[in-house]
Amino acid sequence: MAKKQEAIKRALGTLEYTLGFEIMNFLQDKDVNEIIVNPDTKIWVDTFSKGRVLTDYTLDSGKSEQIIYQVADLTNTVCSASKPTLGAELPDGSRFQGFLPDVVTAPSFIIRKHTERKLTLVDYVNDGVLTPRQRDIILEAIRDRKNIIAAGGTKTGKTTFLNAILAEISKSDDRIVLLEDTRELKCAARNYLSLKVTENCSMNDLLHDTLRATPDRIVVGEVRGDEALALLDAWNTGHDGGCSTVHSSSAMLTLRRLEQLVSRVSVTPQQETIAGAVDVIVYLRRKGTGRVVEEILSIDGYDGEKGRYITHELR
């Protein structure tokens, strides 16, 4: 075990050296959320204060390629000409996505940092993301054990917002089971179990095993595949008061997105199952360099005759 840790430490040191002073500075800058190195060698950063910014720095293609191979070696993952993409989790929890030719013209990679920011619902009100009334609505939904989905497009802060919801859920005495493919959720509950997807254990597998772990509330970092139906079934069978995130373009389209995910394992769209499991959708939208909760939608049921969800906006 000690030898393995020492090998990882050496590999990480080599990676940090290859990344170079500029990128390491960005990784240590708390205002920077993401670092992007494009095939044209230019380096972009995504910041909390200014949004996406083109820096004055570049990284030559040879070093980008070297970094991708080093990350593959560090994470025991294969990346080669025959498998030219690499998705990996760095030791600090950051997400790494690399691309090699021929899927790109030159090596390129993105590092999405593991955020240490712990925002509360009060912080969101102070930052103008939530109105005081919206905060009260979410707190009431948590107290009433409603299943909540934080939805939004790319980089709308869904996971960070989910952490704020989870912080409130953690104040209860409920046993919480967390399921993630990358460790990003922070749970302060006294009684919780955190599970992570591995190469040999999918999110679907974890959801089925979770039911034997006596959860009161089930929390999934993101629903993005055929595990959607397993989560909906769990939420529908006595495990209420959970939360998750879904990538979508509106609150209503979140329901359609769930139908699409469910259709991967079901010949029917399961609208009644969705309507029975999902109680509240909080939809986040990017606004300039910040975010805003655009809508909170209550899901009241499904009208099979009219073929539509019964919903109303919570204000």
What's this, in brief?
InterPro entries: Conjug-transfer_TrbB (IPR014149), P-loop_NTPase (IPR027417), T2SS/T4SS_dom (IPR001482), T4SS_GSP_E_ATPase (IPR050921). With 315 residues, this protein is an alpha/beta fold. The chain has helices at residues 2-28, 61-74, 121-126, 132-143, 158-169, 203-210, 227-236, 251-262, 271-277; strands spanning 32-37, 42-47, 51-58, 85-89, 95-99, 108-112, 148-152, 176-180, 192-196, 217-220, 243-247, 280-287, 290-303, 308-313.
What does this structure look like?
- This protein has 315 residues and is α/β, with parallel strands linked by helices.
- It has 2 domains: 2-112, Beta-Lactamase (2-Layer Sandwich), CATH 3.30.450; 121-313, Rossmann fold, CATH 3.40.50.300.
- It has 9 helices and 14 strands.
- The chain has helices at 2-28, 61-74, 121-126, 132-143, 158-169, 203-210, 227-236, 251-262, 271-277; strands spanning 32-37, 42-47, 51-58, 85-89, 95-99, 108-112, 148-152, 176-180, 192-196, 217-220, 243-247, 280-287, 290-303, 308-313.
- The strands form 2 sheets. Strands 9-8-10-11-7-12-13-14 form an 8-stranded mixed beta sheet, with helices on both faces.
- Helix 1 runs antiparallel to helix 2 and helix 7 crosses helix 9.
- The N and C termini lie far apart (54 Å).
- One of its GO terms (cellular component) is cytoplasm.
- This is Type IV secretion system protein VirB11.
- It comes from Selenomonas ruminantium.
- Residues 25-282 form the Bacterial type II secretion system protein E domain.
- Belongs to the GSP E family.
